[in-house]
Amino acid sequence: MSTSTTFNYPRTFRLESGKRIKNLEIAYHSYGTLNARKDNVVWVCHALTANSDVFEWWPGLFGENDLFNPNDYFIVCANVIGSPYGSTNPLSIDSATGQPYYLSFPQFSVRDLVAAHKLLADHLGIRKIAVTIGGSLGGQQALEWAIADPDRMDNLILVATNAVHSPWGIAFNESQRLAISTDRTFYSNIPNGGAKGLKAARSIALLSYRGYHAYGTTQQEMSNEKQDDFRASSYQNYQGEKLVKRFNAYSYWFLSKAMDGHNVGRGYQSVPDALRGVKAKTLVIGISTDLLFPVEEQKFLANHITDAKYTEISSLYGHDGFLIETKRITEEISHFFNTDKKHRHEPIYQQVG
């Protein structure tokens, strides 16, 4: 039911900056079967450190017993450029030198990630996408794609994301990169370079993903006598080590910079002008306790995308709620499709709702 494949782009891939990547590879997962009408495509854009196996990291929303299931949909998730899960990234071999890129990897943008998605969609013969969905950096990709290629997608679901990455978000990312750069091995051009710095960066990131109340609930000590070895300390160390085992500092560096540069208004008269270019029926979902992408950012999207619907989910888990609160997200998406059916007098998906 699931297929993991790599698409090799036969031409030179030109980045928004004008720099080029030769031998571009795009790893992706697909699930289910494209139907005869080719109108059952669900395209998932993943977040910063995720991979293309959406069934692995978004269970409860994607799976055989979940809202988006392979029995009804043809689901595609592509690993983004720069990510170490099969697509071309800083540890890939630079054909010009015969060595890994490391820090010589060309800086890319969210729009470059979208350009790669478009190439893959064309390769797969997908001219129409029924639903495009993404959260966080994934939502930034989905939004840019909806603006750049508005006639390809019918429905757009944006979760815990924004039109422009905020100074607050950039400051968090820069703090993480400062942590990485203090690890001298980051400049050694070795696959695990910057590993200790990456662990510290992850610890910083976690503070923006959760927040005071989440830590107070999940990491609270049960004894008044403890003076060291706190649960919160163990949690930070564990999550840092966990990321180091599956990611690399170079990918993290470049992807966080792409996130910082996200601004849909680039090249347009204004950000609202760019958002008005979205043609897809749009649902914007905010997480009430999100510190990294506050709900004001999602409300802004809904206010400037034509006829977009905004809904908000209460969650203890802050930004991470977009990955955890799948039951509530399922309810909101189902309601959105049911409402849309009534307005358009036609079924979008018989299996939804």
UniProtKB/TrEMBL annotation:
It is found in: Cytoplasm. It catalyses: L-homoserine + acetyl-CoA = O-acetyl-L-homoserine + CoA. Pathway: Amino-acid biosynthesis; L-methionine biosynthesis via de novo pathway; O-acetyl-L-homoserine from L-homoserine: step 1/1. GO terms for molecular function: homoserine O-acetyltransferase activity. It is an enzyme of class 2 (transferase). Keywords: Acyltransferase, Amino-acid biosynthesis, Cytoplasm, Methionine biosynthesis, Transferase. Pfam families: Abhydrolase_1. GO terms for biological process: homoserine metabolic process; methionine biosynthetic process. GO terms for cellular component: cytoplasm. Gene3D superfamilies: alpha/beta hydrolase. The keyword Amino-acid biosynthesis applies. InterPro entries: AB_hydrolase_1, AB_hydrolase_fold, HAT_MetX-like. HAMAP family: MetX_acyltransf (MF_00296). Belongs to the AB hydrolase superfamily. MetX family. PANTHER family: HOMOSERINE O-ACETYLTRANSFERASE. Transfers an acetyl group from acetyl-CoA to L-homoserine, forming acetyl-L-homoserine. This is Homoserine O-acetyltransferase.
